[in-house]
Amino acid sequence: MVERLDVRKLIMTIIMILMGIAFLMPFLWMISASLKIEEDVLTFPIKWIPETWNAIENYKEVWTGSMPFLLLYWNSIKVTVLTTLISCTVSCLAAYGFAKINFKGRDLLFLIVLATFMIPPQTLLVTQFLLYRWIGLYDTHTGLILLNSFSVFGTFMLRQFYLGISNEIIESARMDGAGHFRIFASIALPLVRPAIATYAILRFIWTWNDFQNPLIFLRSEELYTIQLGVQSFSDQHGSVYSLMMAASVSAILPLLIIFIIGQKNVIEGIQLGGVKG
């Protein structure tokens, strides 16, 4: 019986490894293509290690060419970091309120908030566009940041973790004279740190990769984010795959860095959620 289980586990491990390799191959091809001369990009069979290296020229053209990638990076970093910080703060506070503060109509209000999650974001674009034009937030980074500063998903996700905190701990703190803000900051927040880190990484990735909102709510080229910049770069060099792959690698590099730094917290958050489930 033990041998049979070991064989099954070995087979599943091999299958998962093969699936992982299959998922990584497009990414590895993108990196490989960004290092080649254009003539070698579409050769078959694929030459994963370039025979003629052209990395310096490709990346130099991307970073010093017609598109100001440094400015695009700065715009994306500013919008993404501020959006992530504000969204995490708002979601943490809202989730704690819905989980641990008893007030009249709490459950009904949470259901209303949760129901908005079922509304496709595209249905709100016209209303948001007109509203932003009216209040003067159109074509500004402030407006772009505010669009994603509240997340129903973040509130729901973090509320589930707050519910896992024993009410006895909260009541003991209240009996000692602590208010809700002190309990939130000193007790609840540290206990759900892995969940907050997980949501922060997800929010960072979603905001960094966001193409729709910058496309609609930004008009000035000096305010463009990296995704709009890559699209404009594609319009100019779309037929040159080596340059396009170099631009794509440049665009996703911060996401890889953020995930590598925060993967420990992501794993802890997933494990904590699994235990609670």
Automatic annotation (TrEMBL):
The organism's place on the tree of life at top rank: Bacteria
Membrane topology: Multi-pass membrane protein
Keyword Cell membrane among record annotations: yes
Residues passing through the membrane, by range: 12-31, 72-96, 108-131, 143-162, 183-206, 240-261
GO cellular component: plasma membrane
Domain ABC transmembrane type-1 per the UniProt entry, residue ranges: 73-262
Gene3D superfamilies, per database record: MetI-like
InterPro entries: MetI-like, MetI-like_sf
Broad class of the protein's primary localization: membrane
PROSITE patterns attached to this UniProt entry: ABC_TM1
GO terms classed as biological process: transmembrane transport
Localization terms from the record: Cell membrane
Family indicated by similarity: Belongs to the binding-protein-dependent transport system permease family.
Name of the protein in question: Carbohydrate ABC transporter permease
Origin species: Bacillus timonensis
High-level lineage: Bacteria, Bacillati, Bacillota, Bacilli, Bacillales
